[in-house]
Specification:
45% helix, alpha+beta, 5 helices, elongated, 177 residues
């Protein structure tokens, strides 16, 4: 009955075009920016951080003011304060490092932590962008992660300050690299 109503057809076509542009783009962006941990943006990484229970920052304690570097007997520097923070603070990871941290945490939660399984993770996460990384079981309730490349400083800081690398309960992990 309304097939020949050009004004009504125009409204319906405009509404359909709006839905395609806005809804489709929104859900495609949602998949890329939030749902897919490999490509998540800062908002998506915050969502994943809450889901996985892994903060994407590291807290650090206060520095003892008597040990902080500065000038004069009161350890004062250029702006009349110590270089170290006497109140502590936190370090927020860049999206690249946060994404890596959350991927490792996700693996830690879903895997059994066997050496072959962990080596597949290390290959997936590091081989293409950084180089060879692998895990060795020392057969004495310890294991060693070997990185055959210079670990970027922020990634090393993350690895040293989070207990996120997979390991069985009661097994000591060390990092070489």
């Amino acid at each position: 009955q309304y097939t020949s109503a050009t004004n009504l057809q125009g409204i319906l076509n405009a509404k359909n075009t709006w839905y395609i542009q806005n809804q489709t783009d929104f859900w495609n962006d949602w998949l890329t920016d939030v749902f897919d941990l490999r490509t998540a943006n800062s908002f998506g990484l915050s969502v994943w951080s809450m889901i996985l229970g892994q903060p994407i920052f590291t807290n650090f304690g206060p520095v003892n003011p008597t040990n902080a570097f500065g000038f004069t007997s009161n350890h004062k520097n250029f702006d009349n304060g110590n270089f170290g923070s006497v109140t502590g603070g936190n370090r927020v990871y860049t999206p690249t490092v946060a994404r890596l941290l959350l991927q490792i945490r996700y693996f830690q939660l879903i895997s059994s932590g066997t050496v072959p399984e962990t080596n597949r993770l290390l290959k997936y996460l590091f081989a293409e962008d950084y180089g060879l990384a692998y895990l060795v079981d020392n057969h004495d309730m310890s294991q060693t992660y070997y990185f055959e490349f210079v670990i970027p400083s922020e990634i090393r800081y993350m690895l040293d300050n989070t207990d996120v690398l997979p390991r069985p309960a009661g097994v000591k992990s060390t990092i070489v690299g």
